[in-house]
Amino acid sequence: EVQLVESGGGSVQAGGSLRLSCVASGYISGSLDMAWFRQVPGKGREGVAAIEDDGEITYEEFAKGRFTISSEKAKSHLTAHLDMNDLKPEDTATYYCAADVSARWLSQSEYQYWGQGTQVTVSS
User: Fold this and answer.
1) Strand spans (E) along the chain
2) Which of 15, 56, 66, 119 registers the highest number of CB atoms within 10 A of its CB?
3) How far apart (Å, rounded) are the C-alpha atoms in residues 21 and 8?
4) What is the three-class DSSP state of 30?
């Protein structure tokens, strides 16, 4: 069973930066695709960025140029980061880390494992 533990959320002013991290452990296959999603109350969960095991990266349009997804492999776990720059009030949301052994695209339905979420609040 894959476990995902997120960290790094918080409150910043518009224009500021945050780094979110997600540690994935417990996977057996040796490969894992990871992604970040976000959700605001009353709306569905939307994709932000994804990084596949082979390093291929996908960004949603609003994240291009401001957000950077990366990953680090260790012997027993995998860590995914989301560096967010030039944050805007509309980026305020709960951010979720997601993982799957083989995600085809950046869609909630493609990911089996989910973190607990971390809150990001951007004030104007």
Assistant:
1) 3-7, 10-13, 18-25, 33-39, 46-51, 57-59, 67-73, 77-84, 93-100, 113-114, 118-123
2) 66
3) 6
4) coil
Total count of residues recorded for the chain: 124
Q: Note whether 22 and 68 are within 8 A (CB).
A: no
Place of tokens 């695209």: 105
Q: Return per-residue pLDDT of the chain as tens, 124 residues.
A: 899 999 999 999 999 999 999 999 987 667 899 999 999 999 999 999 999 999 999 999 999 999 999 999 888 889 999 999 999 999 999 999 999 999 988 999 999 999 999 999 999 9
Neighbours of 1 (CB within 10 A): 7
